[in-house]
Write a structure and sequence with these properties.
heterodimer, A: alpha/beta, 6-stranded mixed β-sheet, 4-stranded antiparallel β-sheet, 9 helices, 33% helix, B: mainly alpha, D-Maltodextrin-Binding Protein, domain 2, 2 domains, 5-stranded mixed β-sheet, 16 helices, elongated
Chain lengths: 298, 404
Amino acid sequence: MPAVEVDNIAKSFKDKLAVDALSLSVSRNEIFGLIGPNGAGKTTTIRMMMDIIKPDSGGITILDEKLSEASKNKLGYLPEERGLYRKLKVIDSIIYLASLKGMDRRSAEEKADRLLGQTGMLPAKNKRIEELSKGMAQIIQFIVTIIHDPELVILDEPYTALDPVNTELLKSIVLDLRNEGKAIILSTHQMNQVEELCDRILMINNGRAVLYGNLREIKAKYRSHSVIVDAEGELGQVPGVSQKRDHKGYVEMVLDGNTTPKQVLERLVSAGMTINRFEVATPSLNEIFLEVAGKNHE
Amino acid sequence: MNKTFLIFRHEFLRTIRRTGFIILTLALPVLALVAIGIFHIASGTPSAPAQIQNIGYVDEVGVFDQVTTQGNINFVRFDTTEAATQALLDKDITEYFIIPPDFVSTEVIDRFITQKEFTPSQSIIDAIKNFTSSNLLAGKVSTDVITRVEGSLNLQTTTLTSTGAVAPQQGGYANFIVPGIFSLLLVLSLIFSSTYVLQSLGEEKENRLMEILLSSVSTRQLLAGKVLGLGAAGLLQVIVWVISLPLLLHLASSTIGGFLSNIQIPANFWAFGIIYFILGYLLFAVLSASVASVTSTVQEGQGIAGIYTLSAVWPLWFVSLLLIFPNSPVWVAFSIFPFSAPVLVMMRLGLTGVPAWQLATSMIVLALFVLGGLALSARLLRTYMLMYGKRPNLREIIRGLRTA
């Protein structure tokens, strides 16, 4: 059974349809990317999953059951709009919020010490939240999200205020969580993070799913049927190549419909060319995102 | 552990550690103790006159030698003023007085002391008066008569109604002092406690903590935990006052005396005080929660909260009218109106007998408003707590409530 099963949900505010006929499923042991432009309906979808707001129609199953107060303890949620009690000490904030997830004080403090140590935040344990930098506070929020060992972790823009070192640290923790069998939903605008971490994705635009599935398959689907070549000397005319585009350091060759990349490589080698780089051109997720979001915007 | 209880405990402990809360709670008992202390210092009265005190006197009449003690005070006779002065300077006596030959006709006594004082203490005045009267009457009348002459007058006043029947509520305007002070403190406690609800929810909204909390608890658990936790802190404050006010009154009446000794507080006053605090607090707390839900910042919320908290305060502005006409239909109507009921009923209880039907109606209406407010605030919290930015207008709020 998938960890999350969203079936045809819809939600409108005033006269605006925020989410429309949206379905998705997230498995355990996977990182699922939820992407889309601003105002696409990502946060509304997550809030419906968390039972913070109710869908107008459709159904949501979380960890094999309809979300209840008891099952909220199995969820970890790092919202995009997040904060902490500014006057409270770091350790007190963590313990209080962990207690609301069903942890007793002693085990919360032990786990907090371990996570604070792992993230290099142990010296800040007894500082007030207001004394922390934005990035440090974000690490504390991340610790609060995972301290109770949730089965489903939802992270909404988790890397926004972090420096590269802490970004890598949190990414490695997220990958560890996935490897431990947790289901992780990652909502972000940072496409490179999605490409790097996610197994499957859902792209929402105007409340509707516009792309959904395995990331590799989606990228293959949007392959432009061209190859990238970095060769020494003039490439000249290559049979089966309908168009050539010069870029700095490489040439992009657009193939006609009857030629495969392998055939082009063989022709270049047989022509005596020295090839430094040859690869099938696949668009980045960012390019796919811009193309799909742009199409829907028109 | 129950999540509502966890929120309750968190809010209760956070509130009772606030400096403002501690100051407000202890202000009344501490200020009253300071006032009693200042009175003692100013009047020169030792707080516990348990030690034997020697007071000298020069008897120029010649009859004041039969009774020479009054309680803890020994009266030491001196033949001359010079001898008495020397004894005073040698600290053999604490003071002395001269009874002149014409004392019986003039009642004048000359008193001499070495330390400045505001006025002679009542115990000294009483002791000297009883010393003179006891000696003047000794052997002429029975000891019972002397005891009666020395004793204070026990004047028992009964208020009659316009029909000549004994009024159900006895006592003068002095009885209003404690209910008046209590009502003022009740208003402050209601305002502070409900402001804490507003601040607490407002800060969580402003600090973007709300969504994290709502991913762990329901809006109902959050609201119940907060309202009860902050209300328990307010109740603790009221209980401190309820316990300290009678004790302070007892202390003040036994030491300062005067009209304070005659104050009578209805037996049910404190019980109603706690009931009206609970109901009044719940009403203002759920209103504050509603306001916090629809406003973006704590400051904006406090501006709106000022409007309904005024409705609790205004009876205090018309105290003079309330003292004259405590049973006017206007006061009866506003005793039932839920926003003014807590303070107004408590003030009227100190002045007059409030009929049972008025008390019952007032409490039922308050309870109904609390229940309605609770349902309203839970819906508003769910609908608007995660909406930041522009405050919705009334039409949008009504529409939001329908779809919540």
